[in-house]
Amino acid sequence: MRRHTLVALTAAVALSLAACGSDTASGDAGSSDTAPDTSVAGDTSTTITDVSLAPVEIEVPADKPDGVEPAAEIPTELVIEDIKPGAGYAAVAGDTVIVDYMGARSEDGAEFDNSYDRGQPFDVLLGSGGVIAGWDEGLVGVQAGMRRRLDIPAEMAYGDNPPAGTEVVRPGDALTFIIDVRAVIPAVDPSEAPTDLQVDPSVGATELTTIDHTVGDGPALELGQTAIIHVILARGDNEVVLFNSWDTGDPLQVIMEDGTSLPGLFQGLQGMKVGGVRSMTMPPDLAFGEAGDPGLGLPAATDLIIVAQLLGAF
């Protein structure tokens, strides 16, 4: 079969990968190592070059805090307290941090939200304005394993406009968060995306096929874990790129449980080792279904190609 080079031909668009990816908080790159080139398993004619592997430190989930102590004084400026130290790379603007958190009113410690009960940590692209200013500034410098307290004045939180449905938070409330850092993921250069790897186009696939372009040297991904990945999504027929997380700078979280993400992605990630790069070609029934995803740019009855780099897992 004739081979094509997977090249980014279109702008990235919004990704709708079911349960994987980023949200908006309810409280709501740095240096990297370059992996050596390796031959593709089972196909020595296909190689991938210049893939930058971020040095991701992963921490096991922290215990849920017993609660949030009221602030000694209502904060008029951002107050940062490190309750427990972390280790490794320290986050800067442009990096992604993955955290668990508990949020409360500074005045009396009344809790209004936490991620621990949901069992799904939250990822923040620092400096992007996707979260309140107290988080964007207060999470700079965090390291994996750190527990940090943020006392945030109202103007760096919700001001006089708390989010709808939040009964505890009132207009003008200062907020306090206890935040446990699971991972710090250094920013990537979009030019480091593996857009030059060679993958066969696909029309009418009937099953999932995978190729390991770089075999990682880290631990193997296990069922029940959460994978942290960078991804490229492309049409199978003409290999036009639909989404590229190297461009957005924000890696995805994929829970390794059946039914929580695209079936082909869930199946295709199994057995990968941290640091690895794998391409997955899948029929519509393992992707977005026969209807495709018009918002993403994937027509009906079109195969999907996903290229994933496994940064870490917890």
Structure description:
This protein is mostly beta strands and 314 residues long. It has three helices and 19 strands. The chain has helices at 133-138, 245-248, 263-269, and strands spanning 4-5, 33-34, 39-40, 43-47, 52-53, 57-58, 79-84, 96-105, 111-114, 122-125, 147-152, 175-185, 198-199, 209-214, 226-235, 241-244, 252-255, 277-282, 304-313. Strands 6, 7, 8, 9, 10, 11 and 12 form a seven-stranded antiparallel beta sheet that branches. Strands 14, 15, 16, 17, 18 and 19 form a six-stranded antiparallel beta sheet that branches. The longest helix has 7 residues, at 263-269. The chain starts with a strand and ends with a strand.
Summarize the structure.
This protein has helices at residues 133-138, 245-248, 263-269, and strands at residues 4-5, 33-34, 39-40, 43-47, 52-53, 57-58, 79-84, 96-105, 111-114, 122-125, 147-152, 175-185, 198-199, 209-214, 226-235, 241-244, 252-255, 277-282, 304-313.
